[in-house]
Write the structure tokens for this entry.
Amino acid sequence: MPTARVTVTAVSDEGDTVIVWGRPTGARSDSQPIGYAFRAEGDPGTVALAEQASRLAAGAEAVIDYVAVTGEWCRARGLAIP
């Protein structure tokens, strides 16, 4: 599973999904952020990841395990805060 180290630009809580917008380390500051979607329903581990993601703030660093969906969207599978 790919892993991205990102700088968070925004977090959006959509109820059943938490989206963390971020730029991968090394990306240009004017590049479009990528959305990493965390499901906020399902098994307890998935819900706990979404809750952790919802508490991230703009400017925070995070390491996200993900599955690419499109060039601008990814389905998150794991989260670590270095």
